[in-house]
Design goal:
By secondary structure, the protein is an all-alpha fold. Helices cover 69% and strands 0% of the residues. It has one domain. The chain starts with 5 loop residues before the first helix and ends in a 10-residue tail after the last helix.
């Protein structure tokens, strides 16, 4: 089965391991964020570069947590890893729903 994820490419085919692959893609997102804050990169380009990098970051993170220890993973298995991601998503959505910190402030005329 061919690898369709850049995370799998870095972790498995190039043999960097899941954690190293995770760090690489998190680093890409950090660099894009810094470039945006320094106004070296526009908002649209920053969004799309980050959006693209989240796919292999997610794959690398999921594989790192789920894969057995003898293949450079943590060994939690897919069910436990899925439950961790579900809890994180529910926690973040609940936090945003309660605090509403992501809601734009109203502009007064």
């Amino acid at each position: 089965m061919p690898n369709t994820s850049a995370g799998d490419l870095f972790a498995e085919k190039i043999a960097l391991g899941y954690f190293t692959s995770l760090v690489i893609f998190a680093g890409v997102i950090a660099v894009v964020s810094i470039a945006y804050r320094l106004r070296l990169l526009g908002g649209i380009a920053s969004f799309w570069l980050t959006y693209i990098a989240t796919r292999p970051l997610g794959a690398s993170t999921g594989d790192f947590l789920a894969q057995p220890k003898n293949t450079s993973g943590v060994g939690l298995g897919t069910t436990t890893t899925s439950l961790i991601f579900l809890a994180a998503i529910l926690g973040l959505v609940t936090f945003l729903a309660v605090t509403k910190i992501d809601k734009p402030k109203e502009v007064r005329a």
